[in-house]
Write a structure and sequence with these properties.
The chain has 219 residues and is α+β, with helices and mostly antiparallel strands. It contains eight helices and four strands. This is Glutathione S-transferase 1, isoform D.
Amino acid sequence: MPIDFYHSKASAPCRFVELVAAALHVPLNRKQVDLMAGEHMRPEYIKMNPQHNIPTIVDDGFVLWESRAIGRYLVNKYGGDSSLYPKDPQARAVIDQRLDFDIGTLYARFYQYFYPQVLEGKSADEGELKKLHEAFAMLNTFLEKNKYVAGEELTLADLSLVANVSTIDSVGISIADYPNILRWFDLVKKTAPDYEEANGKGVQEYKEVIGKLRSLNSN
């Protein structure tokens, strides 16, 4: 029975769940949520998810939100001995650290730099851009001795990070100075199952959404 998946194709966290589901061959019953139309604020949605965010899944009555929690859940329930999130505690700890870095450092710094420009029409803050590049330098270092970000195999950490790196890259923030990231980015595009369908198409939709927001806030 497919899992109900409340999402937006443009959303990087939603694309992470898509990538995990594709890797595990977990069927999803996709329910597009139009954030700009306020569909996430409808009473029935808030009743299901009081944080009214996306992605949200409903798996045979079990409701869960927050993308990384969903990714772990899908592997734990449907992944068996999947290398996406191995059972060894030290291997998991490294993956968890990379996931925390993704949301708490890389994405947070991208948000702080980029979204004030898009949502508020502010000028680019060079200090915030420097912080973002410091995060890229950290990621580049993680990849110095690893094929993937947490070792020699594709994991949840790669799928989460690639959703955000592809998003950042799509708005013209260069990663050209980070050869390890460039190598890894190309590798994940080639090895993550159904990458283009699960992430690539959504990145293009994200660019379109950002273009509309920029247009609205420039008037």
